[in-house]
Amino acid sequence: MSVPAPGTGAAAGPAAERAWADAAEHVEVYRRTAGAEGHRWHGRPHLLLGTTGRRSGRLRTVPLVYARARTAAGERLVVVASAGGAERHPAWYLNLVAAPAVQVQLLDRVWSTAATTAAGQDEEAGWAAMAATWDGFARYRALTARRIPVVLLGPPPTDLPDPGEQAPDALP
């Protein structure tokens, strides 16, 4: 059974009309427009996560769907290393395991923080938040043999907008 990519269903909405050639184009447009284009894509909020390449030592940036979750340490931004339900961890996750210092861009805000793999109640809170953002994450979790990591990003700046309050991208 294959799981569609985020936003590929009929309910994806008007922002789903934008097709990125690849993640690099999504990152470029997000940066150039300070997230005005690319933050809401296929109806879901995206941030940019920069990790240090474990072999190259260079900054590698990927766009990821995120959510907010209440954890034992307070509110955190959460992403999952689902790799579209693949049986292997995505490179960005392997990078942050090797070097947990990451860079985050959310709309026009950019900051450095630490990333950790969630466990226990924090992991479940992260899964609940991500599944509420897109139910495909729950399907990935159910259909993938590997344990898909939930990643908690260190405390976000206190004045970040709520992802649910953002208007969809101004896309044709």
Q: Which strand-content bin applies to the residues?
A: 25-35%
What's the story with the biggest beta sheet?
Answer: 8 strands, antiparallel
Question: Helix content range of the residues, please?
Answer: 10-25%
Number of contiguous helices: 4
Shape: globular
Return the CATH topology. Pnp Oxidase, Chain A
Tell me which CATH architecture applies here. Answer: Roll
Q: Determine the N-to-C terminus distance.
A: 32 Å
Averaged pLDDT, please?
Answer: 85
The overall strand count is: 8
Uncertain segments are 1-17, 165-172
- CATH homologous superfamily - what is it? Electron Transport, Fmn-binding Protein, Chain A
- Note the run of SSEs as H and E: HEEEEEHEEHHE
CATH structural class: Mainly Beta
Instruction: Supply the helix-strand structural class.
Output: alpha+beta
Radius of gyration: 15 Å
Number of domains: 1
Catalytic activity: oxidized coenzyme F420-(gamma-L-Glu)(n) + a quinol + H(+) = reduced coenzyme F420-(gamma-L-Glu)(n) + a quinone
Organism: Aquipuribacter hungaricus
Protein name: Nitroreductase/quinone reductase family protein
Family: Belongs to the F420H(2)-dependent quinone reductase family.
Question: Could you walk me through the main structural features you see in this protein, from its secondary elements to its overall organization?
Answer:
The protein has 172 residues and is α+β, with helices and mostly antiparallel strands. The protein has a single domain (19-156), classed as Electron Transport, Fmn-binding Protein, Chain A (Pnp Oxidase, Chain A, Roll), CATH 2.30.110. Helix content is 23%, strand content 28%. The chain has helices at 23-32, 91-98, 120-133, 136-143; strands at 40-41, 44-52, 59-65, 67-71, 74-80, 101-106, 109-117, 150-153. Strands 1, 2, 3, 4, 5, 6, 7 and 8 form an 8-stranded antiparallel sheet that branches. Strand 1 and strand 2 form a beta hairpin. The radius of gyration is 15 Å and the shape is globular.
